[in-house]
Design brief:
The structure holds two protein chains of two kinds. Chain A is built from 13 helices and three strands, in the order H-H-H-E-E-H-E-H-H-H-H-H-H-H-H-H. Chain A is an all-alpha fold. Classes of the chains: A mainly alpha, B alpha/beta.
């Protein structure tokens, strides 16, 4: 105990988290891959990073250049995949620096001689899908979208869940009773059918999905927060805070909330992985994001259509399993870290 | 002598393996338990007394405990080296144990009869009917009214005293030679406490059994034990017959313990002090409702028609057994509990104010709770805990001034400001209680409600906290409402005492007058039970 002096409970949790090597490294690997995927445009794009043309530098990723600026014929944006444009840009002293994977998620690859979906080749490291788009590019962009979607869904769901749980648990009585009945009714609505109905009424989009899934995702968490608040509001430190003259708001936020976050933080990684799976399944069923959006679920469903194109299903499966496994390891470590009985 | 000894403990040490260190809980202790006598192990929390007792039955978690040396001799056998199987025959039949908390030591899902007949069928080869018959006899013997009916009830249907009687009956079922009683009455009210101890004493001579009593309460030891072993930090510092220890304690620590009995710390009152708070006809009724429409069928009168008043700088002791409404009354006075009746605080009506209007006044009346472990938020630093009230009631202070005030109040309660950045879990019970006191004193209140502030503390710490409270009262002229079930504590600090029973005030008056010449029977009974 003595060596742990001056360490706050959250710092001690962090030490316990670090002690779980598997979870700790999973966190770093996951963060690294996620941050990398945030720069997907730089890693995987059909536009070069830098073009050096007639002693001047161009940055096509950030700026629109007409083909005519490079001595081409059209007023439209230069097509850097076009052999004519490439020839101009690599002649003489001109050069261009291309991203590691020279395809965007919408780029259709014409390099392969084989019919689409084409197997891995020197151009398309993981092959192409049934419309000739590069699978690696679609995986990178799809991974990013999945994670961002999952984080958005988790943040909204957690915030609403905490708020609902706080109000129910702190005020108790009638408020709690009413809210619980409401949750029972709300929770018994058929989520999947609502999604199908809404998907046919509105133009499907990522935001529509976030909103629809958030409307149902908060309920599981609010129960836990409610229970923590019900337990906490009768503890002496809350009574002391009331006696000090704190407002309900201050008691809830400053005293009860920090002591009720254990289930919230414990569930966080599992909620993220649940959200990734939800998006993937909806896309797989064709109820998710619009067709040209890069998505893991859509790739999986293509893999099912083209069962012999193993590069489709196998690579997507690998990405999904890797991401979910790391999240579960992180979640496991978080759960252990928040267990105060451990030293 | 050795033939008379039921159990001899020689040079026993007990170690516990914690994460990375070994805790030496008991260090080289030796003592004997003579047949038919009552031996007391006395010490403060953490002194190793319960560890010693549990070692006799080897009830420790085997993966954590280690006995580096020593032996426990019972009938020429060393209990420490017995197999689990042999020990099971000894547990319950030769050596029985009763625990502190009668609520949790009975299984709530079975009727007591089922739990009662188990040891009888296990150790005495009784069949079900015989076991049941014997159980009813035992229930009768330990003083449970209407035993043939109550034996089929569930633990929650019995009172604390009755449950402890059931525990004793279960322990006696197989006529043990040794009964280990681990703080048997700590969770009970004083009047019940006395009955249980008297019962144990009777049974001890009737069954000719030895009793090993573990307690922190020197009063009990004095009245009920033959021998005492005083433990401190895992060692027995003194052992002798009760008379010898109480009359001429040899070891410094024993002297310190004996001197820790609360002394009288009463500050003289300024005559004609102004009236600080007054409650007239305070009532707190909880309706008992039934059915869907919440028909009110009855009400529980937690506080019933209580009149109370307090002048500046005065301490009012509120005594009563559990459930007598003393805490509810305190909470009602401070508007932390809804009540009816008129409450005046410094000539201002409190009971008609709305919660939002009471809030700015809260700095004048503060509360300190019993349990110093749950009264401090575990995720706030000491600085945040003590400074929180300042931010609300003295928002004009700059951070520097606030900090200065916090260090000043910490010094006042006997702590120094090196602890500011620490968290509550790093402190002992006594230190936490000081922090809880600092948190309220910093607001310069005029009234502090102390709800059993010393009940969770060891005697020597209790004494220090009482001294601190008396000091603070003298310095700042704070009034206290001191709620306690412990008459010794009440007597040491109160100017006046209010005795409560079932929500009503039974008797009130000046402390010494009330203690010396109580008028009501209930007060006499309480005083008698508390052995003051």
């Amino acid at each position: 105990m003595k060596s742990n002096n001056h360490i706050s409970p959250s710092q001690r949790s962090w030490l316990r988290f670090k002690a779980n090597r598997r979870g700790y490294y999973s966190l770093w690997v996951f963060l690294f891959v996620f941050v990398l995927s945030l720069f997907a445009e730089v890693i995987s794009n059909d536009k070069p990073l830098i073009v050096h043309y007639q002693n001047e530098y161009y940055f096509p990723i950030f700026k629109f250049y007409k083909e005519t600026e490079f001595g081409g014929d059209f007023e439209t944006e230069a097509d850097y995949k076009d052999s004519y444009v490439r020839k101009i840009l690599t002649d003489n002293d001109n050069w261009m620096l291309e991203p590691l994977n020279a395809f965007n998620h919408t780029t259709i690859s014409y390099d392969s001689d084989l019919p689409n979906p084409a197997p891995p080749s020197e151009f398309n490291v993981l092959g192409t899908d049934d419309r000739g788009r590069d699978v690696l590019a679609r995986l990178i962009y799809g991974f990013r979208l999945s994670i961002l979607f999952a984080i958005a869904l988790t943040i909204i769901g957690t915030a609403v869940g905490i708020l609902a749980g706080m109000v129910q648990g702190y005020f108790g009585g009638r408020v709690d009773l009413f809210f619980q009945r409401f949750i029972e009714v709300w929770g018994s609505m058929p989520e999947l059918y609502l999604l199908i109905i809404f998907a046919s009424i509105f133009q499907p989009s990522v935001w529509l999905l976030v909103i629809l899934l958030s409307m149902f995702g908060w309920m599981g968490l609010s129960d836990y927060v409610r229970a923590e608040f019900l337990k906490g509001r009768n503890l002496d430190y809350v009574k002391s805070a009331r006696a000090l003259g704190l407002t309900d708001r201050a008691i809830m936020l400053r005293h009860l909330l920090p002591n009720s976050l254990t289930p919230v933080i414990t569930f966080m990684p599992f909620r993220i992985s649940g959200a990734i799976l939800a998006l993937t399944s909806l896309d797989y069923l064709g109820l998710g994001v619009p067709a040209d959006t890069p998505s893991l679920g859509e790739l999986l469903s293509q893999g099912k259509e083209n069962i012999s194109a193993w590069w489709l299903s196998l690579s997507t499966f690998g990405v999904l399993v890797g991401a979910l496994m790391m999240l579960i390891f992180i979640g496991e470590a978080v759960r252990e870290a928040l267990d105060t009985r451990r030293v | 002598m050795s033939n008379d000894n039921l159990i001899s403990i020689n040079d026993l040490s007990v170690d516990f393996k914690a994460a990375n260190e070994i805790v030496h809980a008991v260090k080289n202790i030796s003592f004997d338990i003579p047949a038919g006598k009552n031996v007391a192990l006395v010490g403060e929390s953490g002194s190793g007394k319960s560890v010693t007792a549990l070692s006799i039955l080897n009830l420790h978690d085997a993966s954590h405990v280690n006995y580096p040396n020593g032996e426990i001799i019972y009938q020429n056998k060393n209990l420490l080296t017995q197999t689990e199987r042999d020990l099971r025959n000894i547990r319950g039949s030769d050596i029985a144990m009763i625990f502190q908390e009668p609520m949790t030591s009975l299984n709530p899902v079975y009727p007591v009869s089922k739990q009662m007949i188990e040891p009888l069928m296990q150790h005495q080869n009784y069949n079900r009917e015989e076991a049941l018959k014997r159980s009813i006899e035992l229930f009768d013997r330990v003083g449970i009214p209407d035993p043939s009916r109550l034996i089929n009830s569930f633990p929650h249907m019995m009172s604390g005293g009755q449950r402890q009687r059931v525990m004793i009956a279960m322990a006696l079922a197989c006529k043990p030679k040794l009964l280990i009683a681990d703080e048997p009455t700590t969770a009970l009210d004083v009047t019940i406490q006395k009955q249980i101890l008297e019962l144990l004493k009777e049974l001890q001579s009737e069954f000719n059994m030895s009793v090993l009593m573990i307690t922190h309460d020197l009063n009990l030891v004095k009245h009920y034990s033959d021998y005492v072993c005083v433990m401190n930090q895992g060692q027995i510092v003194e052992q002798n017959s009760v008379n010898a220890v109480f009359e001429s304690p040899k070891h410094e620590y024993t002297q310190h313990l004996l001197a820790s009995q609360p002394e009288r710390h009463i500050n003289s009152l300024v005559s004609n002090s102004e009236l600080l708070i007054q409650g007239k006809d305070i009532r707190v009724y909880f309706p008992v409702t039934k059915g869907f429409f919440k028909r009110k069928i009855d009400e529980i009168r937690a506080v019933d028609q209580v009149d109370i008043h307090l002048v500046k700088g005065e301490t009012l002791g509120v005594v009563g057994e559990s459930g007598s409404g003393k805490t509810t009354l305190g909470m009602a006075l401070l508007k932390l509990q809804n009540s009816t009746g008129e409450i005046n605080f410094k000539k201002q009506r409190l009971d008609t104010l709305k919660e939002a209007d009471v809030r700015p006044l809260r700095k004048y009346f503060q509360v300190v709770f019993q349990d110093p472990f749950s009264s401090l938020s575990p995720r706030m630093t000491i600085e945040q805990i003590i400074g929180e009230g300042l931010q609300i009631h003295f928002p004009e202070l700059t951070p520097d001034q606030r900090m200065k005030k916090i260090s000043q109040v910490l010094r006042e309660v006997g702590l120094d400001d090196s602890i500011l950045w620490r968290y509550p879990h790093e402190f002992s019970g006594g230190q936490r209680q000081r922090i809880a006191i600092a948190r309220v004193v910093i607001l310069e209140p005029e009234l502090i409600l102390l709800d059993e502030p010393t009940s969770a503390l060891d005697v020597s710490v209790q004494k220090q906290v009482l001294e601190l409270l008396a000091q603070l009262q003298q310095k700042h002229k704070i009034s206290y409402i001191f709620i306690s079930h412990d008459l010794n504590v009440i007597r040491s600090i109160s100017h006046r005492v209010l005795v409560m029973k079932q929500g009503k005030v039974v008797e009130q008056g000046e402390t010494e007058l009330l203690f010396n010449t109580p008028e009501q029977n209930y007060t006499k009974e309480l005083l008698n039970a508390a052995m003051v």
